Amino acid sequence: MLDFGFHNAHSPGITARLEKEFAEKFGKRFGIAHCNGTATMQTALMAGDVGVGDEVIVPAFTVFSTAAVAFHVNAVPIVADVDPDTWTIDIEDVKRKLTPNTKAIIPVAISGLMCDMDAIMKLADEHNLLVIEDNAQAIMSYHKGKVSGSIGHFASFSFQASKTLTCGDGGMLICDDEELALNARRAATIGFKDISVKPGDTVVSEELRCMPNYQRHCQIGWNQRLPEIACAVALAELERIEELTEMRILCAQAYEQVIADFDWIVAQKIPEGYQSSYWNYPIRIMRDDIEWVKFLRKFKELGGDGFYGSYLPVHLEPVFANLNRAVDENPKRYPHYVGRLPRYEKGYCPTWESIQPQIAMLKTNYWDTADIRRQAELLAETFKYFD
Prior knowledge:
By secondary structure, the protein is α/β, with parallel strands linked by helices. The chain is built from 13 helices and 14 strands.
């Protein structure tokens, strides 16, 4: 790859290989490499003609990007609460928040656990909704025998540095529908009219581009391609994805054995028929007398690597309240949001709002079984200290 160099009109075919092999891995016909796993969801919405005033349902437990992509296309993110045990999107709250303006739903496989995709796809069929699986945290997860990415109309994956498959940053969008795939390809490549869904087809041929009267762009699009050198790294990671996933599962199993001895620690519920790929191992501390920060400090004091708290309920990120205020104060600037935005405030998703402060997301990115055992032992010591 490095010997080939960097060219505008010629390619060693690495992007093509990555797009083709990644899509095939998850049982889809088309793969479209992107610069990150946010761009993937944005282009999926654009490909599905989701835009001004349309509503996109997202879960309260997710990274901000999942909701942000609705704003990127001038749509309205509608935040649904989570199941109290699995912490994935609550299908009953989704039903409550459906309106005639609902156009899409982005179910998030959080911490490696997929949602109830059967229920989501049934609802989508009934209401003609576009389903975009957000699998940034769930490569090689399973739902009733179906691998993550194989169920929705689109599936988005992230190659960001913390992910199981990484090339530093990047993402992949996969789907089966040729028209949707072509629309997404164009949305990710400046709206070039003469590109195709063929793997690696991300630039217009030099023969066409050299003509002074050539019309290049047929639709609005962004420049969200993934550099070929990053594709080479991602392709190498894809070749060992089972091994990378298995190490995270082994780590989760070690933690699982530890928490079994402490009834005040509850892990994310993995329903029968599901297999999490454990991007992390989230637990809930069910004692009001234990301060989250003190729990973290003790774990690190004993030699643990630390852990993360859960992201704020997405609708409580300041950007949402700021947008509510901006629309209130200057409605002429935001005519597409006037009367359409919900009030993004406490009480909108009460289940996750009550659970979120108690969550600790334990790291699983260890590539040596001795390191896994050591972290599990230190976690047990931490639990015993507070028991």
